[in-house]
Amino acid sequence: MIYVTPEISIDPRLISIDFVRASGPGGQNVNKVATAVQLRFDAANCPLLSSDVLDRLKKLAGRRMSISGMLVIDARRFAKQKQNRADAIARLVDLLREAVAEPKARRKTRPTFASKQRRLEAKRHRGKTKKLRRSIRYDTLS
Q1: How far is it, in rounded angstroms, from Cα 35 to Cα 29?
Q2: What is the C-alpha separation between 68 and 43, in angstroms, rounded?
Q3: pLDDT tens per residue, range 77-117
Q4: Which domain holds residue 35?
Q5: Is residue 81 part of a domain?
Q6: pTM
Q7: Which residues contact 9 (CB under 8 A, 6 or more apart)?
Q8: Residue 114: inside a domain, yes or no?
Q9: DSSP-assigned letters across all residues of 37-98
């Protein structure tokens, strides 16, 4: 079991891991050994994820999640297969933890009277500065 939160743990059968050849670290060995990890998680068929958690996960995952609800994570940061596998699982857990956390509801606030006054005073001050920069018209002076 992969533990995400105390309430949610993922059954490893919902995850499939494929190893593919990767560019990046590994030297000449990179052309011979499949070290990159492609982790697939069937989020749509996971019974522990509620519909709102699944919606948040879709939004967070972006194009990493297919229309059918399959989340694909590519890990090719390291030269070792074992490290890439651990990295992919850690990234999946982080993504799920972020999706499980409910966003804080935004409360409407209104500007205070003092902040309105400061804003208007700043506008007046700026207007005065601009007025002083104008060229003087001599025909109006009499």
Answers
A1: 10
A2: 9
A3: 887 888 888 898 888 888 888 888 888 899 999 999 999 99
A4: 2-100
A5: yes
A6: 0.65
A7: 1, 2, 3, 48
A8: no
A9: EEEEEE-TT-TTS-HHHHHHHHHHHGGGB-TTSEEEEEE-SSSSHHHHHHHHHHHHHHHHHH
CATH number of the domain at 62, please.
3.30.160.20
d(CA 23, CA 72) in angstroms, rounded, equals 18
Structural domain total, the chain = 1
Residue type, 123: K
Token pair, residue 139, equals 């025909």
Neighbours of 59 (CB within 10 A): 10
Domain annotation covers residue 136? no
Q: Which two tokens stand for residue 104?
A: 């804080």
Instruction: Tell me the HSE value of 61 on the side-chain side, using a 13 A CA sphere.
Output: 28
